[in-house]
């Protein structure tokens, strides 16, 4: 069985992430969405909320599960869950420059491969930061995020 990990902070999950995870699920028997607990900046949503939104979004997608990535190296997490690869979406050359050293390091550390999928043109402008900013200023982000996320974003402003 071939399984892949899609790691990220998902603060919050948006349709660019959803599209990459859906495409990963067409390539692998099992996809584990790993929501990272440790972030450089304070997250808008708690780890539990970020996991809950992702679980709600993927509840009907076969082969996709959502778990916490609490500590330690990604390569160790992948070994623990038996994943063969990491899948990452690339929006542009900045993503490529940022992701390539990490992918190479992971391969050197344990042979773990990273599969890069080009972002779909419909979503390549999306980032969690931009989605939050537009939403907080009153913009319509209904086409940018899953319904579970839109609800939580609205609640977070109350
Ligand atoms: P980070 O881990 O840098 O906080 P995110 O959690 O937002 O990034 O995203 C996790 C991964 O999802 C990123 O490493 C990137 O591969 C991918 N990604 C982010 N935004 C998009 C997008 N709009 N389209 C495709 N892939 C994306």
TrEMBL record:
It comes from the Bacteria. The record marks 17 as: Transition state stabilizer. It is an enzyme of class 2 (transferase). Pathway: Cofactor biosynthesis; coenzyme A biosynthesis; CoA from (R)-pantothenate: step 4/5. It is found in: Cytoplasm. Its cofactor is Mg(2+). Keywords: ATP-binding, Coenzyme A biosynthesis, Cytoplasm, Magnesium, Nucleotide-binding, Nucleotidyltransferase, Transferase. Pfam families: CTP_transf_like (PF01467). GO terms for molecular function: ATP binding; pantetheine-phosphate adenylyltransferase activity. Its main location: cytoplasm. InterPro entries: Cyt_trans-like, PPAT, Rossmann-like_a/b/a_fold. The keyword Glycoprotein does not apply. NCBIfam families: coaD_prev_kdtB, cyt_tran_rel. Reversibly transfers an adenylyl group from ATP to 4'-phosphopantetheine, yielding dephospho-CoA (dPCoA) and pyrophosphate. Homohexamer. This is Phosphopantetheine adenylyltransferase. It comes from Candidatus Nesterenkonia stercoripullorum.
């Amino acid at each position: 069985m071939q399984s892949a990990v899609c790691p990220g902070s998902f603060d919050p999950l948006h349709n660019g992430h959803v599209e990459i995870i859906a495409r990963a699920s067409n390539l692998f028997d099992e996809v584990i969405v790993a929501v990272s607990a440790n972030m450089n900046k304070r997250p808008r949503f708690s780890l539990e909320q970020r996991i809950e939104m992702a679980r709600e979004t993927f509840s009907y997608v076969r082969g996709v599960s959502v778990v916490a990535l609490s500590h330690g190296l990604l390569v160790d997490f992948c070994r623990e869950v038996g994943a063969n690869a990491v899948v990452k979406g690339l929006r542009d050359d900045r993503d490529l420059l940022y992701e390539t050293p990490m992918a190479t390091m992971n391969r050197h550390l344990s042979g773990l491969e990273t599969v890069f999928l080009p972002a779909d043109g419909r979503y390549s402008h999306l980032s969690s930061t931009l989605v939050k900013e537009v939403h907080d200023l009153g913009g319509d982000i209904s086409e940018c995020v899953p319904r579970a996320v839109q609800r939580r974003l609205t609640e977070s402003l109350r």
